[in-house]
Amino acid sequence: MPLSRITGVLRDELERLSMEGRAKGKEFVIVDVKKPQGKKGPRFLLKGYGDREFIRMNSNSYLGMSLKDEIIKIEEEAARKYGVGPGAVRFISGTYFPHRELEKKLAQFHSREDAMIYSAAYVTVIGVISSLVTDETIIISDELNHNCIINAIKLSRPKDKFVYKHLDMEDLEEKIRNSTGRARRLIIVTDGVFSMRGDYAPLHRIAEIVNHYDSNFEENIITIVDDSHGVGAFGSTGRGTEEMTGAMADILIGTLGKAFGVNGGYVVSNETLTTYLREKAITYIYSNPITPAEAACALRVLEILDSEEGKMRLKHLRELAERFRKGLSEAGYETIASEHPIVPLLVRDTRRTLDIVKYLLDNGILATGLNYPVVPKGDETIRFQINADHTDYDIDYVLEILRKYRKYRWS
User: Fold this and answer.
1) Is 175 a catalytic residue?
2) Of 48, 89, 145, 203, which one is least surrounded by beta carbons within 10 A?
3) How far apart are CA 255 and CA 227, in angstroms?
4) Among this protein's residues, is 195 annotated catalytic?
């Protein structure tokens, strides 16, 4: 029978993951969404749970745009005009008017010459890095960078690579010195906001270091920042880690699949670089883009971000995150100081992480436990993500459930 032997090997591996508490298990299926009512934010219904309602504390939709009636209407209207899918890759016949308008608006939003959108942020990172690595390139990467960066480096096969300690600028500088004279091109790549922790890269310090050593490399030191969790959720105008640090990367990567509420990824830089990527980036050339309707939605979200409504949503988001972070600390839990709506609860134990997640589920709360290898051993975490469509009532309810767990089940 085909696959008979390999199936046994794979089954054993799955059983081992389950025994160690590292299996993700079956996925929850959302079957309905109830819009906010009164003091409550959105509630989600799951397959197999009847009419029980859940607060979603593990969504990347930071601004709540995916449930906003105005955005839904825009998607419906654009789908009627352009169809539900692009039908081709960009260079054949898959480029629609909303795609180019969105790229122009993204470039303007980030004060860059040009932008290009991809089908996802993950493939944006892979396409950008693999296109810029030569056999005379060294890459230096933060040790807690996202999986997409790690795999992009593997795919790119640089001349050499170094990993610096998380946010440790002295270690970064040492790695740059060790690279001097060994390559024509040096790439420093980092997350903007680190997705498991909510802390962020000191781009101003990285820029200072790069300016000091750039002349040592014939083809420059290039800084690439993936700020997928920063853009639209961080900073007073939603411009992410660059806004928070007052510094700009050479190449900035973002996503439309989190704060913007739709799908897709993008990169902004100078026009020569984006033109080069349109010719060389395999994940752009050979993949369909997001739908024209999604692009139209993202365009409107950008307009909202640059309005008083956007500023108020971001202010509300920061206040909710602070309320939750403060409540965790007061209840005796360990978290990480930040202004970002990612609020981690550091459990530091796989079994307890699973137990807390189940306790939350039993009390109508969806939260995600992060265990090794997603996070290092000893950093087992429950990642809570605050959204602008949460309410004070929602936050206080979740905190009350966590206080009860701490009082009655933590031992």
Assistant:
1) no
2) 48
3) 8
4) yes
- For residue 325, the model assigns a pLDDT of 97
- 221-226 and 30-34 beta bridge pairing: unpaired
**Cβ(256)–Cβ(264) below 8 Å:** yes
For residues 410, 336, 59, 240, the Cα torsion angle rounded to the nearest 10 degrees is 180
Residue 268 has pLDDT above 90, yes or no: yes
Q: Are 197 and 384 in contact (CB under 8 A)?
A: no
Give the least confident one: 22-31, 149-158, 264-273: 22-31
What span, in angstroms and rounded, lies between the C-alpha atoms of 387 and 33? 15
Residue-level length of the chain: 411
Selection from 348, 357, 344, 359 nearest residue 409 by Cα:
359
Give the Cα separation of 8 and 311 in Å (integer).
54
Q: Which amino acid is at 152?
A: A
Selected catalytic residue, list 68, 146, 161, 229: 229
Per the confidence metrics, is the pTM higher than 0.85?
yes
- The enclosing H or E element of 43 equals strand 43-46
Q: Which helix (H) or strand (E) holds 9?
A: helix 4-19
- Run of H or E including 251: strand 251-255
pLDDT of the residue at 1:
59
Q: What is the largest CA-CA distance in the chain?
A: 65
Catalytic pick among 195, 228, 269, 338:
195
Asked if 370 contacts 380 with a C-beta cutoff of 8 angstroms, the reply is: yes
In the residue annotation, 326 being an active-site residue is answered as no
Q: Is 279 exposed, middle or buried (0-12, 13-18, 19+ CB in 10 A)?
A: exposed
DSSP 292-344: HHHHHHHHHHHHHHTSHHHHHHHHHHHHHHHHHHHHHHHTT-B----SSSEEE
Q: What is the pLDDT of residues 279-336, one digit of tens each?
A: 999 999 999 999 999 999 999 999 999 999 999 999 999 999 999 999 999 999 999 9
Residue from 258, 316, 340, 390 carrying the catalytic annotation: 258
pLDDT per residue as tens digits for the range 112-141 = 999 999 999 999 999 999 999 999 999 999
249 φ, ψ (degrees, to nearest 5): -85, 160
Asked whether the predicted pLDDT for residue 373 surpasses 80, the reply is: no
Q: How far is CA 203 from CA 79, 135, 250, in A?
A: 39, 27, 11
